[in-house]
Amino acid sequence: MKVFKHFMPTKTVFGRKTFLKIKEEIEQLKIDTDKIAIICGKSAIKNGYIDYLKKQFETVEVFSGVPQDPSVETAKEFKSKLQQFNPTAIIAIGGGSVLDLAKVVAGALKNEGEIEEFIGVPECFKNPTVPIVAVPTTSGSGSEVTPYAVLTNKKEWKKAPIISSYIFPVLSIDDPELTVTMPQHVTANTGIDALSHCIEAFVSKRATPISKLYSLEGIKLIGQYLPRAYGNPKDIEAREKVMLGSLFGGMAITDAGAGLVHTLAHILGVMYDVPHGLAIAMFLVPVLKFYGLAAEREIVEIGKAFGFKTENFETVLSEIESFLKFLGKPESLRSFGVSESDIGNFVSLAMAKRFLMGNLPRIPAEKDIRIIVENLIDTP
Where is the Fe-containing alcohol dehydrogenase-like C-terminal domain (predicted)? Predict the structure, then answer.
């Protein structure tokens, strides 16, 4: 067996109504609550979560309005605002965009340099960040337990990660009751993102015995319960199981990383403002099909975790495609406005990330990217 590493410094508190115990959990960790900055989106305010937090701590300032897919400019804006407040801790409550932005800002407040300089640099921060408490309200990104935070640079058509062990939140509160208000399409898209984390980590060459356990259990939970949560938003058992699957997906990519599906989905997202999970849905099966024999054994195991009654590689892919279509996946990239003239951009932007491809079971050439995108445009 090869040598592997596993590092998971975040204390995770999972379960219904755990959000109501957030002050107690923070105090147990001896986090300085002298000045709490809350970073959130509109839904956290609308649903009353911010009012609850304000009652728990004496000095609180709220920094709201985090957009979907936050940009470098957004991160700079929030950093400037939080610098004036000078928080002793940050509570991030919202979806993956909120959590990612909070992690970037927490790091930038304690480390010299421009935010652009940190992007894509392994272990980019030299100093510990402002302590982060992560409270996800969606079941998708797993950002509450990862050392990653993704920012968008629309000028260059790029979505790129900031990577540092210092941006692991010190505490995550995973309360499935906070996900019940998600609209149906958000439930589907975030769930697909979580599923892709499990799948991409499982086929990664960096996969470890521990990450594979997370991956397979995450696939099992999401495969069984995401259709239920999608069909009935008030099904709290389904919400709970999908959130647990999302948590496992975050833990899996922390060890094993994501792959080509995420690379292509980021390009589609930044070019056409396609929600991340929906973009993931378009590329998941085509990329697995491209991996082919290089990942056949792993893909068959993925099918078993789903509960598919087959060990045929092609049939497993067909079943995954049917699963995604049930959740609203379109037939073609044309539904987003993508045309043949965009293929060159996909190829060049994907190949610019070749440094991320060393962990893939099969490394694509330019023609492979071109074929994947062409086929998705030509699909009737």
Answer: 187-374
